[in-house]
DNA sequence: GGAATTTGTTGTTCGAGAGAACAGGAACGG
DNA sequence: CCGTTCCTGTTCTCTCGAACAACAAATTCC
């Protein structure tokens, strides 16, 4: 699931080709439209080698020749031909499973959302019901796709703990799920067998912001997600961290709460009891049935009341500990923290500065997501696309070619 | 400093050879004595390719042909010739800078300590004084080395924050240092210019235990070091985490302390105020001048007094949070925690079990260091050896060949 | 003792990237 | 307006490293 290669293996020449082909595609995916000259300098390979790789990608139907990139290089010399994602190229389906709604999108190489659909998800719905409605959304989203374009896979963002090895949803408290094989359920509802990847919403938010959001070029970042529960996704050295089981970054139960309130996990003083959605909702007397739309409620405020300012300070203090431990260059505040931070920015910053050690403080920045509320969705797309960058030929081999017929059921 | 390759680069054929040669050497280093047949299956390369790589390593003088490995394979077939570290092969010097003493060792490929020396370090000593005495220890340790053997580099373990980019010691509270370029000081005292690597003691402990200690084969582990201050080194996915500046894993200032004692960092309730050496010393009425030997004091106890049992519970509770966040497969308790854990194992385990979430708890193990008190020292050796595994030819090129003459000053 | 099995060795093949030579296309300078 | 300069795409050849095949060597098993 992670892009890390197995350590200790040797490299044969087939692996070289695979890696280089995948890396070219990764660059095209990142930039959308890039010149061959840029590819040569980015990858440090010879012009002729790049030409061969680009030609192979074109023959695979994933990229196509394009006009030179606008405003690329100023000066003399022959302009370099562009490479861009093919119009009828491969795509994936991304699913963002929220507490109250599911968003499904068709996302092409390059990270563009080509089509989108959503539907409400009933609280406490059974997994197979949710799976059926997700499958129906998938069919909608895929209906207008070019017939020749292959479907590479499905990526699903889940608000809960996802086991790394097999994508099993171990625990999703806000969905009321435990040990649910949601990937299999969706595939069964669709009646196909294609690669499915699942991930935690905070992890995927971090991945998306790192690749396409405010965190582009930032190799050490943390994405804190407020989505009823509080979680973090961590990118360290440019790599998404998973932990032994896939549960890396569960910061919601760190005991930052001085009041010592009891948490649903059984312990006391968890950070979630201070800055979790339910805690905030209670503090500002927000009705319980609107907790899922807490960000909209917060956006409605002009001036923050004192309770929110105190929450902002608590958020800043908690972030200080997180920064001390993870030493990130950037912390992205996602979910309802996005709205909260806009309201009480001063308090959060003060709380952070007050408690962070000097060394980690000097290089860290707080930021809002560059992808708005689509972070997790686009992160789901990224993990579904990942096989293409590891081995384009193999990934296209397992892709679903005749999508309409395949999903007709 | 970290073994991660720069992302986005292409692989040319020169890089392939470099990588494969380094990987063979890495395996020989790890195993000490390994058969060529094992190398072929581990690396997935052809027999003849491995033969060529091994021949090159032999011609470089880093490995030599050996008898077949004892008790390797049972069954028919020609026994596979062994590969082992050359007797007069390259070595490094490892330095473990402690609070009260410096240990210096000559360490060969394969991780064997070939020679060792130590000297007390005066509390509050100036960096140049410490540097001079370290340099003198280095000369001792190198004196009996085979004259043909090259010195690849120096690795230094420091109890403090080390900046990743240049190895500057940003802050070492227990040495009273701030912004000290200790690597340069030692090199100047030696009068040579060879590669020097510095690292935090907990980080290096984690690295060593992962490669040569209890954590062999465990790709997600945490090493908690108790050395006056409390810190953690984290290996995730088989890679040591550094963070943006190199300060990843500073867990000593997480606010786990319910009593809310004031810490030297200015905040309240830091974990160090509960399980730090000074806190423990105070709790058991240990004289202040023996804090540096806290482990020996603890080893003197037969039955733990109540105060230590409470400390054990606090340690367990803190570890629970750490396990929740980092989701490791193993937690190694180093420094004086080694002695403490042996005394109050039950309390630590109970505290951990009580507060860890079910999912991360089910896969985690507490362990004692497999390398005793040499973890940080051997970790320092590992980072000094690392260049050899990235590019053996280049690393041997920058190595010091005529060591006696070079260090004669 | 012969068959089976596994490995080391040697020479050849194959494939991917590097490099050189040439052509194409634009900006620049006069 | 035209030649120069600069950079890039294209094509062909070269080089190098890994794979492959065939054979020899060394051990176990029957």
From TrEMBL, chains A, B:
Q: Which InterPro entries match?
A: ATPase_NBD (IPR043129), ROK (IPR000600), WH-like_DNA-bd_sf (IPR036388), WH_DNA-bd_sf (IPR036390)
> What domain of life is recorded for the organism?
Bacteria
Regions annotated as coiled coil: none
Pfam families, A to Z = ROK (PF00480)
Among SUPFAM superfamilies, the record links this protein to:
Actin-like ATPase domain, Winged helix' DNA-binding domain
The family note in this entry says: Belongs to the ROK (NagC/XylR) family.
Its name, as the record gives it, is Xylose-responsive transcription regulator, ROK family
Question: What species is this protein from?
Answer: uncultured Nocardioides sp
